[in-house]
């Protein structure tokens, strides 16, 4: 969350300087500012990965068995979720501030679905950041430039689609399709499979009477 706040601060400073120098606040600088904010967020995500990687190596050195008590996948999930919650919280604050009034949404012919649509977009963004964190960390660990490029490209696409608002049909639909596809990709990256889902939903009873539930992200142990 701290790294995401750093990216927000850097993007705000960049926007302030660019507006002061150009004296413009029209669509072109706004698009460039959104793209710069996305790139700064992904840069901070990479810095977060490097820091957590160093921490993981330090924990492994201090442990008795030479292994870190926290896996890199757990760090990726927590990092992505923190990015998403921070981003969603800042988005929701502005919307809640507008909801306090004065005025009524849609009274001048605007869409009356502003708040509900914003809530769904915020939810999708929180999920996307969580999924991007898992995919990004795995791509950095395996040195896969294609995975990194797709994460950055997906982030830029999501940010760009929001400029279609208030044409919500054109922005909300593609963003949720992207969220679903990215979620499936992150699930596969984390080691999930359809077979594991079936194992997770199933259960068995051991001779001692203890019930064992399997995780959808790992293969059940051998008998």
From TrEMBL:
<feature type="transmembrane region" description="Helical">
    <location>
        <begin position="72"/>
        <end position="93"/>
    </location>
</feature>
<dbReference type="GO" id="GO:0007219">
    <property type="term" value="P:Notch signaling pathway"/>
</dbReference>
<feature type="transmembrane region" description="Helical">
    <location>
        <begin position="174"/>
        <end position="194"/>
    </location>
</feature>
<comment type="similarity">
    <text>Belongs to the APH-1 family.</text>
</comment>
<keyword id="KW-0914">Notch signaling pathway</keyword>
<feature type="signal peptide">
    <location>
        <begin position="1"/>
        <end position="19"/>
    </location>
</feature>
<comment type="function">
    <text>Potential subunit of the gamma-secretase complex, an endoprotease complex that catalyzes the intramembrane cleavage of integral proteins such as Notch receptors.</text>
</comment>
<dbReference type="Pfam" id="PF06105">
    <property type="entry name" value="Aph-1"/>
</dbReference>
<feature type="transmembrane region" description="Helical">
    <location>
        <begin position="113"/>
        <end position="136"/>
    </location>
</feature>
<keyword id="KW-0732">Signal</keyword>
<feature type="transmembrane region" description="Helical">
    <location>
        <begin position="31"/>
        <end position="52"/>
    </location>
</feature>
<keyword id="KW-1133">Transmembrane helix</keyword>
<feature type="transmembrane region" description="Helical">
    <location>
        <begin position="148"/>
        <end position="168"/>
    </location>
</feature>
<keyword id="KW-0472">Membrane</keyword>
<dbReference type="GO" id="GO:0016485">
    <property type="term" value="P:protein processing"/>
</dbReference>
<keyword id="KW-0812">Transmembrane</keyword>
<protein>
    <recommendedName>
        <fullName>Gamma-secretase subunit APH-1</fullName>
    </recommendedName>
</protein>
<dbReference type="GO" id="GO:0070765">
    <property type="term" value="C:gamma-secretase complex"/>
</dbReference>
<comment type="subunit">
    <text>Component of the gamma-secretase complex.</text>
</comment>
<dbReference type="InterPro" id="IPR009294">
    <property type="entry name" value="Aph-1"/>
</dbReference>
């Amino acid at each position: 969350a701290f790294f995401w706040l750093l990216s927000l601060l850097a993007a705000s400073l960049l926007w302030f300087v660019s507006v002061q120098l150009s004296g413009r606040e029209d669509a072109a600088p706004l698009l460039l500012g959104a793209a710069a904010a996305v790139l700064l967020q992904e840069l901070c995500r990479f810095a977060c990965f490097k820091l957590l990687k160093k921490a993981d190596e330090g924990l492994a050195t201090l442990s008795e068995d030479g292994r870190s008590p926290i896996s890199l996948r757990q760090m990726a999930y927590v990092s992505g979720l923190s990015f998403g919650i921070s981003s969603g919280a800042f988005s929701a604050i502005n919307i809640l501030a507008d909801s306090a009034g004065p005025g009524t949404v849609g009274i001048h012919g605007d869409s009356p679905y502003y708040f509900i649509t914003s809530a769904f977009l915020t939810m999708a963004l929180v999920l996307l950041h969580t999924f991007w964190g898992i995919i990004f960390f795995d791509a950095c660990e395996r040195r896969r430039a294609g995975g990194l490029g797709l994460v950055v490209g997906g982030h830029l696409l999501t940010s760009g689609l929001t400029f279609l608002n208030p044409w919500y049909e054109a922005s909300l639909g593609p963003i949720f399709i992207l969220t679903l596809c990215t979620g499936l990709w992150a699930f596969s990256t984390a080691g999930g499979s359809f077979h594991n889902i079936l194992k997770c939903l199933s259960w068995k009873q051991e001779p001692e009477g203890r019930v064992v539930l399997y995780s959808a992200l790992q293969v059940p142990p051998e008998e």
